[in-house]
Amino acid sequence: MFLRRLYYDLVNGDMVSHRMARGSIIVPTAEEDFARLPELAGRSEADTGWFEWTEPDATAEGDFARASGVSVDVSGKRHKIVWDFTPLPEPETGPTYEELAEALLEVGIDVTRRDVLEQAREIGARVVEAERVLEAGRTPELEIGGENGVKEGKGG
């Protein structure tokens, strides 16, 4: 079994929802989608159109795989899918582990030392405990410094 549905706004052609499923599935009706899918909440057939494929279409599947965006031309009597094949920008990446370790070493923190790693774990555990205290409605008293970096005082 196969199902692909593309829901779009009948006024401006913007894609509202898209779904694809294959395998051993129970195909819901569009009416069931309107009742169940959060992105279709408050919408109906009066303001939302859809395209539906119940068998894989090689051309459509290829276009969906390559497209960076999809909308619908609603200007004519027959609505048409408009594919945007603009390449997506490469995701920005942060510094590598090595770059971070080097920067930390420049300020006197050697992340390769076991005692530094143990201290970081201890600080992380104390932050988690402070978050629990806050969730319980108490005010944690944290002291910065000392032998282990952060010490938690008694909550009020």
Low-confidence stretches: 142-156
By DSSP, the count of extended strands is 7
Using only C-alpha atoms, the radius of gyration works out to: 27 Å
The percent range for helix content is: 25-40%
**What is the oligomeric state here?**
single chain
Largest beta-sheet characterization: 3 strands, antiparallel
Overall 3D geometry? elongated
Order of helices and strands: EEHEHEEHHEE
Mean pLDDT: 82
Beta-strand portion reads 15-25%
Ends apart, CA distance between termini: 60 Å
User: How many domains make up the coordinates?
Assistant: 2
Strand order of the largest sheet: 2-1-3
Given the structure, what is the number of helices? 4
Describe this structure in words.
It is a single chain. This protein has 156 residues and is of the alpha+beta class. The chain has 4 helices and 7 strands, in the order ββαβαββααββ. A 3-stranded antiparallel β-sheet has the order 2-1-3, with no helix packed on it. A hairpin with a 6-residue loop joins β4 and β5 (80-84). It folds into 2 domains: 2-84, no CATH class; 97-152, no CATH class. Residues 142-156 have low confidence and may be disordered.
